[in-house]
Write a structure and sequence with these properties.
By secondary structure, the protein is mostly helical. The chain is built from one helix and no strands. Keywords: Membrane, Transmembrane, Transmembrane helix.
Length: 50
């Protein structure tokens, strides 16, 4: 018994906007710089006072 099947293939293309990715990278790198700067400040100035 042979079955004939009609199969439709649907392809979805994901659109990635490089400018949005770049903005996100810059934002999170800035957060990291601020975080490590704060840690450096604590280690260099605040902890030696104790």
């Amino acid at each position: 018994m042979v079955e004939n099947r009609n199969v439709e293939v649907e392809r979805k293309e994901t659109k990635s906007d490089p400018s949005k990715v770049g903005v996100a990278v810059i934002k999170y790198v800035t957060y990291l710089i601020i975080f490590f700067g704060f840690l450096w400040f604590l280690i260099s100035y605040v902890f030696p006072m104790f």
